[in-house]
């Protein structure tokens, strides 16, 4: 990640959404901020291509959903849009995808309002993994498939800042010689990646698991499905088991800056990379202008 621009949004009653620009290398967030000390907050990462924030509306919708799940104040869409657009405006044309990460924490411990900021940066170039595919392992997330209904305080399905577990899963994948992870529930439902959504191809149908399993509604998966449907592909939201993943004709992990990354190995077994669907999805995803 190459940070480029940082805008802090004043979320106090008096601040009324005032934006201040900072050098991203400068220390800005106090060490007593609950985002720093507890991972208590939410975030989104939006890709910026050709100067356009891709899927801004769905990212703001998900930000609102996460805020509600964490009992944070309802984000003011106009204020956040202004901050995100300001951060995006500083991103130059580059072969790497630009991105804006925007964050709202519960604020300083003992304080009265959240902390908010939007950071513009250049993300890693996904072209290598799009062309060559990625190696993935399945890992048990340790929760049942109905955890979001039985235990909502576990915040499964919220895009919270508490990603230490997601990062640990990535390191476990590396220890097993893989690039990424598909989480599976303790009762054998396919969930999502630590920072991505699963898409599986069965014949002429694309399938992704339902958000009721305590996973994020993927903005990239939604737009990838729109792209596939425009090319006559049927799409389905449906529960999948690890055995279904073995049966699938092809598999992808998708997320905002990465697009659709085809899986070339799952749990040590070689998988067919579907270059045609990969190209179809990524062409439309990269061309999004809203
Ligand atoms: N699931 C998780 C846990 C994520 O963190 C992300 C994105 O970072 C996704 C899915 C994919 O979401 P999107 O396609 O909106 O980037």
Features:
single chain; 290 residues; alpha+beta; D-amino Acid Aminotransferase, Chain A, domain 1; D-amino Acid Aminotransferase, Chain A, domain 2; 2 domains; 8-stranded mixed sheet; 6-stranded antiparallel sheet; 9 helices; 29% helix; globular; binds pyridoxal-5'-phosphate
Structural class: alpha+beta
With helices defined by DSSP (H or I, 4 residues minimum), what is the helix count? Answer: 9
CATH architecture of the largest domain: Alpha-Beta Barrel
What is the total tally of β strands? 14
Tell me about this structure.
29% of the residues lie in helices and 28% in strands. By secondary structure, it is α+β, with helices and mostly antiparallel strands. Strands 7, 8, 9, 10, 11, 12, 13 and 14 form an 8-stranded mixed β-sheet that branches. The chain has a 6-stranded antiparallel β-sheet with strand order 2-1-6-5-3-4. The two termini are 23 Å apart.
């Amino acid at each position: 990640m190459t940070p480029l621009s940082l805008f802090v949004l004043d979320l106090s009653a008096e601040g009324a959404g005032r934006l201040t620009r900072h050098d991203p290398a400068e220390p800005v967030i106090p060490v007593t901020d609950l985002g720093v000390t507890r991972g208590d907050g939410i975030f989104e990462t939006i890709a910026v291509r050709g100067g356009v924030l891709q899927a801004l509306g769905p990212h703001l919708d998900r930000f609102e959903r996460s805020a509600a799940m964490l009992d944070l104040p309802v984000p003011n869409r106009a204020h956040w849009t202004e901050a995100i657009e300001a951060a995006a405006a500083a991103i130059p044309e580059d072969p790497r995808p630009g991105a804006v990460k925007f964050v709202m924490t519960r604020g300083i411990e003992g304080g009265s309002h959240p902390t908010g900021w939007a950071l513009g940066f250049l993300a890693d170039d996904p072209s290598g993994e799009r062309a060559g595919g990625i190696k993935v392992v399945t890992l048990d997330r340790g929760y049942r498939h109905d955890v979001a209904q039985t235990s909502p305080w576990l915040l499964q399905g919220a895009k919270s800042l508490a990603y230490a577990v997601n990062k640990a899963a990535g390191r476990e994948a590396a220890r097993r010689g893989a690039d990424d992870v598909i989480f599976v529930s303790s009762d054998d439902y396919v969930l999502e990646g630590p920072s991505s959504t699963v898409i599986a191809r069965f014949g002429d149908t694309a399938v992704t698991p339902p958000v009721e399993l305590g996973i994020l509604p993927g903005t990239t998966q939604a737009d990838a499905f729109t792209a596939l449907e425009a090319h006559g592909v049927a799409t389905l939201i449906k529960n999948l088991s690890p055995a279904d993943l073995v049966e699938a004709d092809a598999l992808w992990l998708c997320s905002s800056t990465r697009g659709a990354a085809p899986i070339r190995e799952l749990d040590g077994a070689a998988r067919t990379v579907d270059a045609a669907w990969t190209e179809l999805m990524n062409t439309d995803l990269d061309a999004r202008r809203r």
